[in-house]
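Workshop exercise sheet. Pairs work together: one partner reads the sequence aloud, the other fills in the structure field after running the prediction. Swap roles for the next sheet.
Pair: D.N. / O.F.
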Amino acid sequence: MTPPRRQRRYPAHEPTPPRPARQGEERNPERLYVVAGAGEDGARAALDLVTLVVARAEPPPSATPEQAALLRLCTAPLSVAELSAYLNLPFSAMTVLITELLTAELVQARAPIVRQAVPDRSLLEAVMHGLQRL
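Structure field:
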């Protein structure tokens, strides 16, 4: 049996008050399966953090708030990492959301253009000058 502990009359320091929630931060976040949906077959699109996503249509009335926000953000191509940061959702939840929108053909996803795949400007100029001489 352990003896009872004594309480201090004057605590050494005051307890810190809870910090206020920052913008975009929730105190009681919803569970991710509520945000991402159940997913019928569990299949996900092959997405990477640098995969670019662009909207093909406006958000339908049946879209969830997260899907509507994603469609509004994707008027210009954005990477999955940027979307994840803007919507404050982890990558796993983003892949589920984007997969649902891909199957509904509301968004289009593509790999980014690799800089080395684009020909050098000097080469293109040399070809253009060669064609002009013909």
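Discussion prompt: DSSP finds five helices and three strands in the chain. What would you look at next?
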